[in-house]
Specification:
heterodimer, A: alpha/beta, Rossmann fold, two-stranded antiparallel sheet, globular, B: alpha/beta, 2 domains, 7-stranded parallel β-sheet, 5-stranded parallel β-sheet
């Protein structure tokens, strides 16, 4: 089985966000593989263990994003591809276009990705990739079985979950709960250094800047207004609880 | 020539979702500034009876796409019929709710129409003739204003429960247009649907949420939250710690890796207030924290705090609210 995992490098979820020159500062930020993409990589490795085959990890990002690819290789993926768009003026359509182009040069039976990234939280890149490659997509998958011809996926839907069947190749996006991603072993980390990792630019995937121009323009960045610290209601628990109920009715007028 | 604001009228099991009314109100606001009309697209099986009512909430026109194949949502069938409609009508903007369905559908339609899409927006306005959207990024730690200057339609999904719903205008009707569906190629087969049956409101739509954290100490103690939720008509949520411990299902997790909620009132019991949790609930209008640790981070975001043992505070709070409501 030829498996592709799409990954993104993101800020650590604990990162403190500050503005530098009107944009999101990158100073002192530790970078990680998007946690939802870790589920995708783990699931890719499980499919490989069950069905045989190989796992190719593909990312779009600056050169430093090779770290995320290396992590996937250390977990057990076989090879990696990084496409550096060479510009920061990118949006989801840009990234999806590049990913789809990079993937289309590979053989694939299934393409896995996280259902969203924890930074911009857009939840649209994998879906767009499916659309470009004319593949079906199942998002927010918490259980997956896939063999030669089809995938059966349990996915979150409004108000519950659904079991869906799709012919392969297909795009599947991972929701929390799909699996527990493994930690790279020391041996895995050593081996990852020798695994093939191709770094490419736009030209290498037959694209030029005009084909990937961002459609979304950010006008400005800001930090959310801090919530004013409220008041702590004094007293013994029972007394405070009664005062709280009263405050919610009379002061906040909310119950 | 692009014209009009189109809204995806989300329904489930024959009921219009609240976010649809929020979208119509937002759509009407921007449409009037742009001198355009608001229309809605309603998709499903046997949903035409819902169309007229959308007029009261501001839809000038409702496109109804009905077919047996649209009973259960599938990305393929819905993307096919909705993208066709959008292509034919060429609206200036197409807005959807940022629900599981809306988010899924929006990405496919946006790519098919080769346009931009802003996800999970919390505000929309018109500035210098351009539609501008506000959306949180980095789990709410930063905010952007963004626009889609050239590609059409402008597409966005709007976070449920954030934007206001205008008072419905009784008797105002919408022009209903039945659109023959071209279901097209559907590759996804829905084998089974498992509904979570709950008498409580859904987390993302709830006016009040009562949420528990590690301080609940175990699944058996969620009864305390449920009792409080019962008197408030609230939904019950939980922090990641409770989900990871296996006390409660992932479907009720609030936070960065769970649901994002914006109720009028969020009561956090035994929740320390990690940044990942705040990401999911800091847009709540009023936040109440109950925690025995006076230093807990949650108090920095809370409008009202009680420093005390939740096992003592919650039962009294429930009783007091019951009395007030009696």
């Amino acid at each position: 089985m030829k498996i592709v995992a799409l990954v993104k490098q993101t800020f650590d979820s604990e990162a403190k966000i500050a503005l530098e020159g009107g944009k999101i500062g990158r100073q002192g930020i530790s970078l990680i593989m998007n946690p939802y993409d870790e589920y995708a990589v783990e699931e890719a490795l499980k499919l490989k263990e069950k069905n045989g085959g190989e796992v190719t990890v593909v990312t779009v990002g600056p050169d430093e994003a090779t770290e995320a690819v290396r992590q996937a290789l250390a977990m057990g993926a076989d090879q990696g591809i990084l496409v550096n768009p060479g510009t920061e003026d990118i949006d989801e359509s840009t990234v999806a276009t590049i990913l789809a182009k990079a993937v289309s040069s590979l053989e694939y039976d299934i393409i896995l990705g996280g259902f969203r990234a924890i930074d911009d939280g857009s939840a649209q890149v994998a879906g767009r990739v499916a659309e470009i490659l004319n593949l079906p997509v199942v998002n927010m998958v918490t259980k997956l079985e896939a063999d030669g011809g089809k995938a059966v996926a349990t996915a979150d839907i409004e108000g519950g979950s659904a079991v869906m069947e799709v012919p392969l190749p297909a795009v599947i996006t991972a929701q929390k709960g799909l699996n527990e991603p493994r930690y790279p072993s020391m041996k895995g980390i050593m081996q990852a250094k020798k695994k093939p990792l191709k770094k490419m630019g736009l030209g290498d995937v037959s694209l030029d800047a005009s084909q990937v121009a961002a459609k979304v323009k950010v006008l400005n960045y800001s930090l959310p207004p801090a919530r004013a610290a409220g008041k702590v209601i004094p007293g013994e628990p029972a007394e405070a609880a009664a005062a709280l109920a009263k405050a919610l009715r009379e002061e906040a007028k909310i119950i | 020539m692009a014209k009009g604001i189109l809204v995806f009228a989300e329904q489930r099991d024959g009921k219009i979702k609240k976010v649809t009314y929020e979208l119509l109100s937002a759509g009407k606001k921007i449409a009037s500034q742009l001198g355009e009309e608001v229309s809605a697209v309603l998709v499903g099986k046997g949903v035409s009876s819902l169309a007229g009512g959308l007029g009261e909430y501001g839809a000038d026109k409702v496109y109804v796409i009905e077919n047996d194949a649209l009973e259960n949502y599938t990305t393929d069938a819905y993307a096919n019929v909705v993208a066709d409609l959008v292509k034919q009508n060429e609206p200036t903007a197409f807005l959807l709710g940022c629900s599981i369905t809306g988010r899924d559908l929006a990405a496919q339609v946006a790519q098919r129409l080769n346009t931009g899409l802003l996800t999970d927006c919390i505000n929309v306005m018109v500035e210098n003739g351009q539609i501008v959207f506000t959306r949180p990024i980095y789990a709410g730690k930063a905010i952007i204003n963004a626009a889609i200057p050239e590609a059409r339609p402008v597409m966005a999904t709007i976070r449920p429960n954030v934007l206001p719903v205008d008072e419905p205008q009784a008797g105002k009707s919408a022009e209903v247009v039945n659109v023959p569906p071209n279901i097209g190629n559907v590759r996804i087969t829905v084998k089974d649907v498992i509904r979570q049956v709950s008498a409580r409101p859904e987390l993302t739509e709830a006016d009040i949420i009562v949420s528990g954290g590690r301080g609940m100490k175990g699944p058996e103690n969620f009864k305390l939250l449920e009792d409080l939720a019962d008197v408030l008509g609230a939904a019950v949520g939980a922090s990641r710690a409770c989900v990871d411990a296996g006390w409660v299902p992932l479907s009720i997790q609030v936070g960065q890796t769970g649901k994002t909620v914006s109720p009028n009132l969020y009561i956090a019991a035994g929740i320390s207030g990690a940044i990942q949790h705040l990401a999911g609930m800091s847009s709540s209008k009023v936040i109440v924290a109950v925690n025995k640790d006076a230093e807990a981070n949650i108090f920095k975001s809370a409008d009202f705090g009680v420093v005390g043992d939740l096992f003592e505070v919650l039962p009294v709070l429930t009783q007091e609210i019951k009395k007030l409501k009696a």
